[in-house]
Amino acid sequence: MHDAVMDDLPPARSHQGATAYVVPLATGGDLRRRNEGAALVALLLNGGTAKVVPGTWSSTSEYLADHLAGRYPGVEFAELRYRLKSWNEFDACRDDAKEALAVLEREGRRPTLLIGFSMGGAVSAAVAGEASVAAVLGLAPWLPDKLPLDGLRGKRFDVIHGSWDRWLPLIPGVSPASSRAGFERALALGAEGTYRVIPRGLHGAAVRRPSGKLLPLPRARKWVEEVGVGIERFAAAAS
Question: CB 66: neighbour CB atoms within 10 A?
Fold first, then answer.
């Protein structure tokens, strides 16, 4: 994926358009916040693989927050870094997400949109029943058949997926067919929402260079636009 032709949206400078700072969580994770105290919250949840590794900041979540936090000052963008990043430590990831929601609620309960990328889609589904969660936006979400989706019952659940996304050797990914099956399961339980495909989109919006800088993937602009639509829909419903 690194050798593909990049989208024409230039890489964002880290945290452009909004001041960001990191809050340590009691569970051992971290929460990076921008537009702190805004009336609405978008909590971005990272992906992971089978290998158990210390948590990192999601390149896709960071890229989206870089480009959207300045555009939507009425929404707090909070990125979660798990203590351990792996679906084999799923309970720990879920507990980190619950703690992040609890920290955000201490300033008063605010409508919250969960934006779950890859495995973060499963984490979002696992905490969607929390009182402050108003809606979930899955970005190439991993929603395995055995994952309970009851927390999405009665909630807004939208999915965005790149049409070229798939698992390849040494390259993590989630097929659109897999997320579509999870989306249909959620609808059958009483969720409502839309499923949108980004033509020629890959697994997320960006990857991280060895230097730490973000490298946008093809169709990065479209990811930003589509997530922006989801933010605006969430804000309209909350008003």
Answer: 23
Q: Are the CB atoms for 206 and 59 separated by under 8 Å?
A: yes
This prediction has a pTM of 0.91
Beta strands 30-34 and 20-24 are antiparallel
E runs forming strands in the chain: 20-24, 30-34, 40-45, 53-54, 75-81, 84-85, 112-117, 133-139, 156-162, 195-198, 206-208, 214-216
Least Cα distance to 115 among 18, 41, 15, 218 occurs for 41
CA distances from 168 to 79, 164, 215, 216, 223 (A): 27, 11, 20, 19, 21
| pLDDT tens, position by position, 105-142 | 998 889 999 999 999 999 999 999 999 999 999 999 99
DSSP letter assigned to residue 29: -
pLDDT tens digit sequence for 146-198: 999 999 999 999 999 999 998 776 668 999 999 999 999 999 999 999 999 99
Map tokens 């639509």 to a residue.
229
